Amino acid sequence: MQLLSPLSALFGLALPAIVLMYLFKRTYMDTEIASHMLWNRMLREQEANRPWQKLRTRPLMLLQLLAAAVLMLALMQPYLTADSRSGSHTVIVLDRSASMTAAMPGGSSQGSLLHAAVQQAELWLSEQPKGELITLLVTGEQPRIILSKETDHELVLQQLKAITPDFGTQDNVAALSLADSLLANEQGRQILLLTDGRWQDADSVNLLTLHAKLEQFKLSAPQAGSNNSAILYFGIHAAVGEDGNRAGVVTLRNDSAASKQIQLAVYADKESEPAATKSVKLESGGWTSVDVIGLPEEASYYTAKISGTTDDYAADNIAYQFPIVSKAQQVLLATSGNLFLEKALQLAGVKTIKVDPTQYVPSKEHVKDIDWVIMDGDTAKLRTDKSWQELFASKPVWYIDHPEATEEETASPANSRVAIADHPVTAYLSFEDTHIGRMVKAKDAGTWGDAIVTYGGLPAIYAGSVQGRPQLRFTFDMQSSDLPLRPEFPVLIVQAADWMSGGSRAQLGTADAGSALQLAFLNETVSAKWEMIETIGGYSEKSLPDSNLSAALASQEPAIAPAVPGLYRLMEQNAEGETIGQRMLAVNAASAESASMSATADIKPIAAASSETSQNQADAGSAAGSVETANAANAFAAWLALALLALMLVEWEVYRRGNAG
Fold first, then answer.
1. Across the beta sheet with 133-138, what order do the strands follow?
2. Which of 99, 401, 493, 569 fits a disulfide with 531 by CB distance 3.0 to 4.6 angstroms?
3. What is the tens place of the pLDDT at every residue in 115-150?
4. Kind of pairing between the strands at 509-512 and 469-474
5. Superfamily assignment of 330-500 in CATH?
């Protein structure tokens, strides 16, 4: 029991005061006696115990002392402590993104961050009172509610331990918004967030307004970039060398805090021995592209792996790629000079015919073997030329604008924020730390395509089709930006070239885990299923999304890629159950997760009515406790008042009967 007003104990000084009043009280009783000689004995007794004789039989005094003590106790406002959160509702938001598979400080023997998050949640649950309502929610491209308003904490713990990582794109804004909406009009509401803080959308999350109290357990993640290396891109050249082997290129990045010797091995199919190996030393934060040669031509797929070093995050240490089976594309490159673009096109296996647009006049004979065209520069004057008009109307065209500051139809981006749409050209790209100074306002682009990259609020890359032919438009000059210096540049050019070629791979290519896929099935296909070839990091795909393939077959809906990174085979069967087609798909962890390994973010959403709620959040526990305390104190006061009233009635009865002493 505790006291709200312990200073009221000073009223306890009234107790000895009452006793003193009785000690000094002079009492006289009229008594008839036979002789005054009897007084001598009474005088001797009073002289022996003069003060205390008056306290021998004083029931009225005892009642008054008891009443004073009860009154003092009432003034001190006693109360019993109780957990003020009893009956409250908590939504546990568990971050299960790919970055949560990173090892804890101390190495993989300490377990992953996700494992540590579950342990932290278990500890928190053990401290909660029975009856606490728990809702369990996990992050993902679409956040998912596992349990709702559950009071069985053992069941909550079982479900927590069964949660597996989600290697796909994460929508953390949706996760926190959903958690907050689930607590609308709830008492004692709070959100418990367990995360490593590696959120690419942290800026958007911090613009959220949350009405519930947010409590975070930010896990003790490895120091940002402490020990991670990554494969950014893996490509195979279309052309086969004179020795009958293929060549490829692998882009590596060192996110570690120190320089690192990276061992790279490239395997053909399921061979146990690598077909090619490379050892590269990279400085902290550095990147490089490595050429690999001697890859067997007949292989159906190739695997690039980082090996020989410990790594915090394993999901970006492996990449798959498939050989290009069609002939090399021949491209007309109209440019006054763009060395970066030319080199990147060579990596893509594209044969370029370079011409100067100010001097070259296209002819039917010259362009008949051209597969598509790249226009690097202003095309306004060329569009008035009949020969160029015929070329633009007959071939897929990739336009690269060169905006000038003096032109009215250009603008500078307001900021460096990047929005990237899901598209084959932008797969694995983040445009992180890229600077673009000026862009063209392409008014007509919306009639044939969509903006797949927006930079600073302005469309930077359009993709679409004109009369069934693919078309691209970059509204900025590559050479006036630092994009060619970024490790993503060759990836962008290779993917753009492949898309302009109409896709030239016999396999399904690559996709992010859990992402939507547009699949073209064979005409005779009546059923399809995924077959797992291998997965990364020891994770297994327990429930392949075959049911979604049936829906995709029936209604042409997008199929869903498997949820665990690895290599899969799409099996197609006809009405007789015979396999009539099989194509492979390489599934990767979301590229944003690899990019976020280099930094953590502060997650600080806006509290509703910030000026008032910030104080409420700071004192949320004490505020709720004050209500409980006040109720408990009022309950005690009522009983003490009844006890005091009863004592006063007894005291009056004693006085009435003449037993005052």
1. 144-150, 133-138, 89-94, 189-195, 213-218
2. 569
3. 999 999 999 999 888 888 999 999 998 999 999 999
4. unpaired
5. Class I glutamine amidotransferase (GATase) domain (3.40.50.880)
